[in-house]
Structure formats: C-alpha cells, structure tokens
Design brief:
- With about 150 residues, the chain is α+β, with helices and mostly antiparallel strands.
- It has a domain of about 90 residues: Beta Barrel (OB fold (Dihydrolipoamide Acetyltransferase, E2P)), CATH 2.40.50.140.
- It is built from 5 helices and 5 strands.
- It has a 5-stranded mixed beta barrel.
- Strand 1 and strand 2 form a beta hairpin.
- The longest helix is centred in the C-terminal third of the chain and has 12 residues.
- The radius of gyration is 23 Å and the shape is elongated.
- The termini are far apart.
- About 5% of the residues have low confidence.
- This is Nucleic acid-binding protein.
Length: about 150
C-alpha cells in the first residue's frame, strides 16, 4: 500500500443513498491536529474498487467500524472510499495492538441520545403500524359470569 493510500478506521453513521454513508473519522487523522479524542463526520462511498456483486452482498450497519481510503481530490464532496467492514475479531486485535483510535473508546453520540430518550420516554411514543389489525383483548371475567 502506498503512503498516499493509507487506510483509516471510521465508524459508520447514517446511510445517504447511492452507496454513500456518513462516517465518523478521528480529527487527528483528517486535520493533523493533536486532539485524537474527537471526530469529524465525512461522506464516503462504498468501495469503487469493489465488484458490483460484492457491493450488493456487503451489509453495512450503523455504528460498525470500517476501513477507509481517503481521496486526494478536494473538489469532490465524497471524502473517501469504504474498503471493508471490520469484524468483532478485527476490533479486538486492533485494541490489543494499540492501533485503536481514542475517539472510538467513547460511545458514539447517536447511542448516547437514544439511551437518554429510552430512559425519559414511556411507551406512549412507540410507533403503531397502521397496516396491522389492532387486537382487543376481553377480560376473562365476563366469560365466567355468563357461564354461572
């Protein structure tokens, strides 16, 4: 691998369509700053170098980690290419080898917000599927009274 095509670890965010995703990348890898505990959100696309059959078979989940190759062109909106998705075993190996970015030792902001919402909200805000019939359960007391 060339020095220009260094692979970077990122955390997958929101899918944007057309095989494009937002990815959180540590600031020290993008801006060459010394602060490696924060990250920046960039737009990447699922591997241009991948075959179309591999693209359709690749499953990308929010919050999963991936390898990225940045583009050298600043004129385009897409920051880089998602080369591969890291498995749980890959993550463990990176943590043991001290190549793990400090920005990813903390929980991502999306998961913090969802945890707070779950704690604060009740069941009243749950989504109700209008395509399903609502089941009305009758109590067993009425059946017992009729049988007596």
């Amino acid at each position: 691998m060339e020095e220009d095509q260094k692979q970077i670890i990122g955390r997958v965010g929101q899918p944007m369509g057309s095989n494009q995703f937002t990815v959180d990348v540590p600031d020290n890898l993008i801006n060459k700053s010394s602060d490696d505990s924060t990250y920046t959100q960039v737009l990447v696309q699922l591997g241009r170098s991948m075959t179309s059959s591999k693209k359709t078979k690749t499953w990308v989940k929010r919050g999963s980690l991936c390898y990225l190759e940045p583009y050298n062109d600043d004129k385009i909106k897409v920051w880089g290419e998602m080369v591969s998705i890291l498995s749980a075993n890959d993550e463990k190996a990176l943590k043991k080898s001290n190549n793990w970015p400090k920005a990813f030792t903390q929980t991502p902001p999306q998961s913090q917000n969802t945890q707070e919402n779950v704690e604060n909200d009740g069941d009243d805000d749950l989504f109700v599927n209008p395509n399903r019939r609502t089941v009305v359960e009758e109590s067993d007391d009425s059946e017992e009274e009729e049988s007596d």
